[in-house]
Description:
Blueprint: E1 4-7, E2 10-13, E3 18-24, E4 33-39, E5 45-51, E6 57-59, E7 67-72, E8 77-82, E9 91-98, E10 112-113, E11 117-122
Parallel strand pairs: 2-11
Antiparallel strand pairs: 1-3, 3-8, 4-5, 4-9, 5-6, 7-8, 9-10, 9-11
Amino acid sequence: QVQLVESGGGLVQAGESLRLSCAASGPTFSTYGMGWFRQAPGKERDFVAAITGGGTTLYADSVKGRFSISRDNDKNTVYLQMNSLKPEDTAVYYCAGRSGGSVYFTFRRYDYWGQGTQVTVSS
């Protein structure tokens, strides 16, 4: 019913920036709560940022002031602008969505997932 495809990952040096994109299929994207999660090697999948159907955003403490989530409903796309990247940001980044407009910190509350895009930050 809903497919999410992430793009924009890559290899950057510490202090540099990347913008991730998540393209969604389906007719009701504007009503979905959307989030970004990441999973580093040997680690659990952690919350990064989320945006509600109404445009309210929230962030993990580890990325506040550095990352920014946004959405373009006309393009059925959600973005994650990542600035001042650190080696500890290295992970596979996953786009997540849910049919309801609210967002949550836990990955368990999301219904749809992309395949992930690798972000590697070197020092």
